[in-house]
């Protein structure tokens, strides 16, 4: 398990991190979300040892992280760094050799990632000749090629087209299923909701919510009742404490609390009920509430 404990960091007067903590289990995919400037990159840099925390600790398997541990991590930094003139295959292979892989293993791992990340046709191109999205794929291959023990990825999905997003999501799911803790930051909350087991929401350097995505979405008082009614007379829902909007000639009533069965009876009397059920909030809704 990778544990981030009570990290604090200032830059001059600016408090960037004010007690950030979370844990990522082996085999767990952890989505790190927060507004611009919230502290995600700073946290990940501290995890990777690129920055020193003022206080707090990063632990693995119950002990403080060492440089040796970090060398086995895979990291995609915010400031991307590739050799512009080197071709794609040579580049990925070069980084895998830096991580101590044999030439044969490096070649095999490079070939696999080139194929999985959709770079086959560009394998002989220099990085500088690639589109930004393809450069990003190479950067990801470099972070993944040495079969890291932990993955720390700063906005790995930004700038990727939907096919590349799917390809990367599959690779990350495979790595996580093989027992690797995966942390990635993203502003694409639908993607985080779909992919991650757990999330941490950071706001102004503090964790404002964290835990399994399902638990956050299921927690009490968070679901809303949604009723879609066709052909109801205006004002039919006036006695219910909810909001009515119209969508394609139907009334859509959302109610946060109330007697579900009573609401259903009222809706049935008013018109044709096309939909009735409780809806869990999306991660995007939880995020907005948490950082408000
Ligand atoms: N080297 C630095 N010197 C001064 N301030 C810094 C430095 N690095 C980060 N900060 C400040 O610390 C805060 C957290 O920044 P950080 O880059 O960690 O946010 P983030 O959540 O990654 O944002 P984004 O989503 O925009 O990438 C910001 O206010 C930022 O301006």
Automatic annotation (TrEMBL):
Q: Which UniProt keywords apply?
A: Antibiotic resistance, ATP-binding, Nucleotide-binding, Transport
All copies of the ABC transporter domain together span 2-229
Q: Which GO terms describe its biological process?
A: response to antibiotic
Keyword Nucleotide-binding present in the record's keywords: the answer is: yes
Question: Is Lipid metabolism one of the keywords?
Answer: no
Q: Which GO cellular component terms are attached?
A: plasma membrane
Q: Name one GO molecular function term.
A: ATP hydrolysis activity
* Annotated compartments: Cell membrane
- Pfam families per UniProt: ABC_tran, DrrA1-3_C
Topological relation to the membrane, as annotated: Peripheral membrane protein
Principal cellular location given in the protein's record: membrane
In terms of PANTHER family, this protein maps to: ABC TRANSPORTER ATP-BINDING PROTEIN, ABC TRANSPORTER ATP-BINDING PROTEIN NATA
User: What family is it from?
Assistant: Belongs to the ABC transporter superfamily.
Protein name (database record): ABC transporter ATP-binding protein
Name its species. Planotetraspora thailandica
